[in-house]
């Protein structure tokens, strides 16, 4: 059996961190295709595959998402969101050149659809890291995505509910990716 030190998948999982500084160079289509493919191959209850991925690379649309999300954050009643929104330099997508909006088919939400979409998102984050592409899972932009008129503007297909976003881009800062210490006291066995 391979040790953690030699297992490439475990090394990528342990080295993946949320990246909040990006180069403005767009990731390649081939890299994006592989990241999406990783999402599509996520575990899915009853092979339901309830996800839909909307790719946004338009600078104008990303600026719009940042502005509208920041406006909603400032009135959200969520202390951390309001504090972040008060910073004039804060951008909810961290100026990443690519944003993937992950949506779930509405008729699948009671059949583990949300969990399936979360698994797809995690697969994409790990795939990005394996290619040295930075990523961050964006939950707060869900404030914008949850508004029906905004979902229409973003091209979310009818019958899907957008949940969150994944920002992607080449890392703007190369730092050693050291995992914070994790508690291993979270397991019990029943034999």
TrEMBL record:
All residue ranges annotated as the Nitroreductase domain in the record: 13-170
Gene Ontology terms describing biological process: 2,4,6-trinitrotoluene catabolic process
Record flagged with keyword Amino-acid biosynthesis: no
Single Gene Ontology MF annotation: oxidoreductase activity, acting on other nitrogenous compounds as donors, with NAD or NADP as acceptor
InterPro entries in the cross-refs: Nitroreductase, Nitroreductase-like, Nitroreductase/BluB
Cross-referenced Pfam families: Nitroreductase (PF00881)
SUPFAM superfamilies with a match to the protein in the record: FMN-dependent nitroreductase-like
GO cellular component: cytosol
Protein name (Swiss-Prot/TrEMBL): Nitroreductase
């Amino acid at each position: 059996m391979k040790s953690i030190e030699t297992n490439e998948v475990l090394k990528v999982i342990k080295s993946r961190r949320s990246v909040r500084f990006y180069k403005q160079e767009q990731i390649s289509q081939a890299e994006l295709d592989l990241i999406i493919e990783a999402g599509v191959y996520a575990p899915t209850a009853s092979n339901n595959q309830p996800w839909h991925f909307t790719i946004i690379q338009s600078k104008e649309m990303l600026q719009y998402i940042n502005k509208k999300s920041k406006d909603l954050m400032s009135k959200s009643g969520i202390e951390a969101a309001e504090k972040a929104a008060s910073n004039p330099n804060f951008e909810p997508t961290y100026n990443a050149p690519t944003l993937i909006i992950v949506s779930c088919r509405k008729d699948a939400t009671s059949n583990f659809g949300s969990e399936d979409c979360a698994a797809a998102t995690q697969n994409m984050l790990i795939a990005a890291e394996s290619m040295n592409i930075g990523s961050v899972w964006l939950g707060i932009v869900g404030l914008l995505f949850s508004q029906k008129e905004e979902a229409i503007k973003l091209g979310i297909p009818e019958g899907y509910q957008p949940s969150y976003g994944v920002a992607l881009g080449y890392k703007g800062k190369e730092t050693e990716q050291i995992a914070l210490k994790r508690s291993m006291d979270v397991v019990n066995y029943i034999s």
